Amino acid sequence: MSKILVVSGHPRLNQSLANKTILEALKEKGADFTLLRLDEEGFAPQVEKDQALLKDADIIVFQFPIFWYSYPSLMKHWVEEVFAHGFAYGTGGTALKGKKFQISFTTGSPASAYRTGGPNGHPMEDFLYNFQQIAALCGMEYEEPIYTNGCAFIPGVSPESVKERVIRDCRAHGEKLAQRLEELAK
């Protein structure tokens, strides 16, 4: 059985309806994974412990919201510290080679915003090159991303119907991620 590490990059996971719902649905579907919550480590990653988790995993999942067309600064800082030269890439850096790399994320904007000529100017795929490059540099197998658009919900501001839709969409996202991980683990 393949070992799965899910790295949650939301800086305030307890306040995130979308990302919290995805992780709950993933767990409810019976996925066997280790969860590393970067919001609990903050900007002081436990490099050796986290590298040991990465080395032990066969499948590495990044679960996060899109912030300013990329991953949150908390997760970026973690990658900068933990995916170190000599560990993840470069001379002797083969610890991640051959591992499957799955990104799973949410956006606040609707899908229609991610198109040429739309508010964000590009299709979503144009914003993912950095993850493809991380995988290539580290010798990981980049898997097709799983993502859900339109996940913006602000308690006390957004209508209850938005909350219900976000929960429904993110439960489906978590179920899809569970199915993908089951396929990758074979």
Automatic annotation (TrEMBL):
Pfam families: Flavodoxin_2. The keyword Cell cycle does not apply. Keywords: Oxidoreductase. Gene3D superfamilies: 3.40.50.360. GO terms for molecular function: electron transfer activity; FMN binding; NAD(P)H dehydrogenase (quinone) activity. SUPFAM superfamilies: Flavoproteins. This is Flavodoxin-like fold domain-containing protein.
